[in-house]
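I am writing to request your help with a piece of structural work I have in hand. A protein sequence and the structure tokens that stand for its backbone fold form the material at issue. Please examine both parts with care and let me know of anything in them that strikes you as inconsistent. The record follows directly beneath this note.
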Amino acid sequence: MKINNQFSSIEQITSQYLNKKAATVEAADQNISFSEVLKSKQTEADTELKFSKHAASRLADRQIDLTQEQMKRLEDGTKKASEKGIQESLVLIDQLAFIVSVKNNTVITAMDQKETNHNIFTNIDGAVIM
């Protein structure tokens, strides 16, 4: 735990590192193979929603700040699109529109309602309204 870029106490930092080491030892004790751990980590990374450089730039340019609740809804909408077999989806949340490459689990672009040129979206094969 850091407070003002300094550790608050030696006990806390010692406990933090010892607990991590204990977790590593536990995994070793359970005879989990390296390939199983690797597959698990890859699956975790694959399910995490990413933002393309373009989408991140659009969010910044348009001063769109997603709340944790909106981010959760965006992830849920992407998951629902995936379950329906959608490859490229429009996900609508509140007054925000996101184009998501479901197969890559990546937000391609983002915009608010004011910037959705006549409410026409192309190159999508499904939409999710959250």
Notes: The chain has a mean pLDDT of 80. Residues 88 and 124 are 5 Å apart (CA to CA).
